[in-house]
Amino acid sequence: RRALEIVVRTLEKLGHEVVEWKPPSHKRLGEICFKTWFYDGGADFREAFGLSGEPAAPQVAAPSEGTQVNATEIAAVNVERREAQKEYMEYWNSTKDQTSTGRPVDALICPLAPFPAARPQKYTYYGYSTFVNVLDYTSVVVPVTTVDQNVDKVDEGFKPMDDTDKSVHDAYDPEIYDGAHVAVQLVGRRFQEEKMLALAEFVGEAVKG
């Protein structure tokens, strides 16, 4: 949260506009993504691990035990994905009504993960990255700061939205994460790789400055 605030304050100080992002449901995008992950019921996963006999980590072993879905089910997910992409595109286009230029926003500033680094078996939320995959958008990560245990304390008044939200929040430990690097993700639209790299360079230099 502090990294996001640093980026926002820096950009506003340089004269750029920052608007609050209120998009269509990211939970829906996550659900679509999870469906695609399990199309083959874990067959490829089991084959790969079978080559070495290496045991799978618990967080990936359990979901790999399903059955393969058929072509009709895959087609239905593809339709759902296209509908979600269209809905999100229309929302992004609508942000032109919130900017002084009359143009949609250039990029979305958000986390890539809800923590500075993943701890074993504690990566319980993927939504900050999976929504980018489902929409086929462009993303680049920019380093911002490091955790300071004297500043980045546990939010005692935090009210979780659901069990996943609670588990993510409860996993935060200022002492363990002290000194860990924190970055933000800049998300652009499809086929905007060069634009996003330019924005990343601009934002990165501005934050350092």
From TrEMBL:
Amidase domain: residues covered: 1-197
Key words of the record: Hydrolase
Gene3D superfamilies linked: Amidase signature (AS) domain
InterPro entries registered for this protein in UniProt: Amidase_dom (IPR023631), AS_sf (IPR036928)
Pfam families xrefs: Amidase
Entry superkingdom: Eukaryota
Family: Belongs to the amidase family.
PANTHER family: AMIDASE, AMIDASE-RELATED-RELATED
Protein name (Swiss-Prot/TrEMBL): Amidase domain-containing protein
